[in-house]
UniProtKB/TrEMBL annotation:
Record-given protein name: Uroporphyrinogen decarboxylase
Provenance organism: Sporomusa termitida
Molecular function GO terms recorded: uroporphyrinogen decarboxylase activity
EC numbers, comma separated: 4.1.1.37
InterPro entries according to UniProt: Methanogen_methyltrans, UROD/MetE-like_sf, Uroporphyrinogen_deCOase
Uroporphyrinogen decarboxylase (URO-D) domain boundaries: 7-341
Gene Ontology BP terms: porphyrin-containing compound biosynthetic process
Keywords assigned by UniProt, alphabetized: Lyase
SUPFAM superfamilies referenced in this protein's UniProt entry, alphabetically: UROD/MetE-like
Enzyme kind, highest EC tier: lyase
Amino acid sequence: MAKDQMTPIERLSAYSRGKSIDRLPCVPIVGNTAARVIGVKVSELPANGKLLAQAQIGAYRRFGYDIIRIFTDLYGQAEAMGAVIRYPKDETAYLDQPALTDISQIDRLSPANPYQDGNLPQQLEAMRIAVEEVGKEVVVTGALTAPFTNASFLIGAENLTRLVAKNPEAVHRLCRLSLETSLNYAKAIIDAGCTPSLTDPMSSATIISPKKFEEFSLPYLQQLIEYIHSRGKSVTLHICGKTAKIWELMANAGADCISIDNAASLTEAKGQIGNRLRLMGNVKPSEVMLQGSQADVRLAVLGGVREAHDNPKGYIVASGCSLPTETPFANIDAMLDAVREIGYPITEEKLNDLEQRWST
C-alpha cells in the first residue's frame, strides 16, 4: 500500500499553490470516534481539554488524515449562553433545554466569554495542546457553530421557525447575540493558533428557504467570515442536507471551501460554483462509512474523486458530515488507503483500473 510522502501541511500548501503533491487531501470528519481511539467514553471529552486533545491527536496519528478538527458537539456556544445540554455517558450530547422558553426573556442573554463560560475554555485548551504537539505538521481547526444555528439552540428550533414568520426582528436579535459570541470564540480559536471551521445545519435548504437564508443567516455569516479572513485564516463552511439552492449564497458569504453533504451532488456543485471555491465531501457517513464494507468505502472515495478531482479551485476527499461514533477503524483506514492508491496526478485510466479491481 502506498505511503504518504508529505505532511498534511506540506500537502495542503503545495496543493493550494498548484504544485506537485503525493495524493489529494483527505478528511474523514472524525468527531467522537476519537473517544474510541483512546478507549474513553464520549461524555468524558467535552469538559476535559487535555483528554479531548489526546483523543483528537491520537485519531490523527492513528489514521493520518489531513486536518484535525477539535469538536465534540454543536452546543458549546449555546451552553455558554445558558442552554442546558445533556451528556449521555457514551453518546453525543443533545439540547435538553434552550436558554429561553419565550422570546420575551431575550434581555437575559449576553454574549459568551469563551475563556470563562461553559465548556469553551476546555475546547480552547484542547486546541492549544494540539497546536503545540502537532501543529507544525497538520492544520488544527476549532469547530464554530454559525449564528443562525446557535440562535436555534437559544430559543429552540420550533420556536425559531415560528419567529422567522411572525417576529423577524426577534430572530435578528438572537442572531446578533449569537454573532457576538461567535466572534468572541473565533478570536479565541485563532489566538490559540487554530483555524475556525464553521458549521450551520439549521441554514440548510432542507429547513429554511433560500430567501430566509439570505435574510437571517447570510448577513451574520458574512460578518463572521470577514473577521476570520481579517486574521489571515481561510474558511470552510459546512451546511447539512440539500444545499444546491444556496451554494451561490454560501460562496457570497465568503467561504473559501464548502463541505458538501452526501444529500448533494459534487458534480452539480463543481458546475455551479467550482470556479469560486474549493469543494470537500461527500462520502456517506452512515450508509458507507458506518455500515458499508471496506470495498464500499474505496468505491465511494473513487466516485467522489471521479466527480470532483478536476474542480477548478480544488477538492478534498471527505465524509459528508461528522462520522458516527462507532465508525469502524478499518473503514477510516480504507478511505485514506484509497486516496493514497489513487495518488496524484489523477488520470481516467487509473480511476477505471482501480474501479475494476475494487469492484471484484
